[in-house]
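Now for one protein, fold included:
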Amino acid sequence: MVKLSIIIPIYNVEKFVLECLESIFSQLSNKYVEIILVNDGSIDNSMKIVDSYLKEQSLDVIKKVKIINQENRGLSGARNSGIKIAQGDFLYFLDSDDYIATDFFDKILPILDDSIDIIEFNAKFFHLTHANKIFSDRKNIYKHGLHTINSEDMRAEFYGWQDWAVWYRIYNKKIWNNRIFPEGKLYEDAATIPFVYQGAKKIYSLDFTLIYYRNNPNSIMNNKNTKSLDSIDFIVKIFSSDCQTKYIRIVHNRFVIASIAILLKNIGILKTYFWMLKNFKKLDSEILKNIKSKKLVFINNWPLLLIPYFKLKSKGVIK
């Protein structure tokens, strides 16, 4: 019987994958857990390190591991492959350059009940400075305990609190509802998790740090990428087509705000300016108030201040 499937895409992470695996296997014995490792066409020594590490494990532990080898399809494609073969009642997605807390299973497994739709928890972000790890806390829960979502307003309150990175939570497979991550796009979590989350009726919020996220300066998210504009437009379109609910509007608004900073880095001021002109026509006063609180985004790009200023003024946010 498998209660939890942990899906780990692996692609060129030879420097980090061992730390990820050790964090799991050091606490894996006698747990109703399976580990799905998806080799997404790695061309470095990642899989050699994985194979060598697994040879050191007991037979009982090895039985908990499944390995998929595939041509490179990106993070989404690797996760989708893992979902297809997952036997667990619950799904968790862990990136192979991150690692879990030493008490992850002790905190999670006792509350893996079929009546629970989502278990969410906090994270620590970290980066390396020479030989030291520098950590920063990221709180992602609304309030510790079990919550039953019984109104749209309550759901909207939860949505207003969330970071949509997939690894902040564990998902009951029944609410995943055959959803897949969009392949060939960036920001796949934002395009997927808010729609999975809307099917949750019972959410268990754990006020504990259970995941350690590596702020990798060489990752796609931290570098200029030509896919950014296409991916952002793709996700904004998804949200726009489903903005009849208050909570999806919240996600839409926050994503557009976050996108401005991303686009400034990737396509420059002028193109971002015209993107804002096009997309601000679709937004309401709620997002404009949000812009007022996020004004630091614009300080070093003063021409863009003209758009939020006049929009805020027309909506009465600025007198």
